[in-house]
Amino acid sequence: MLDARSDRSAAEEAARHIELAANQGVTAAQNQIAIMYARGVGVKPDQETALTWFEIAAGMGDDQAIGNRDRFAATLSPDTRAMAEQRARAFRPQNTLP
Length: 98
Prior knowledge:
By secondary structure, the protein is mainly α. The protein is 71% helix and 0% strand.
């Protein structure tokens, strides 16, 4: 049986892999890591980072991310939204292949 520590460790490992894929431009991973940041699953909760990832995925036309972004952004301050939008505009996928 898994304990809470094992569950947390597994969530942290999953978050690392998902964020790596998100940084490489995988839209589904971008939406998923946004959800993880919004809920604090496997990562420290971070509203600005969550919205940044929702913005990036929504900008790629992901319908689920568009809905998530709109609902989540409505709960945040204008300053947080502005910072997330700025970070999303600056995002460039990383190629980690040799």
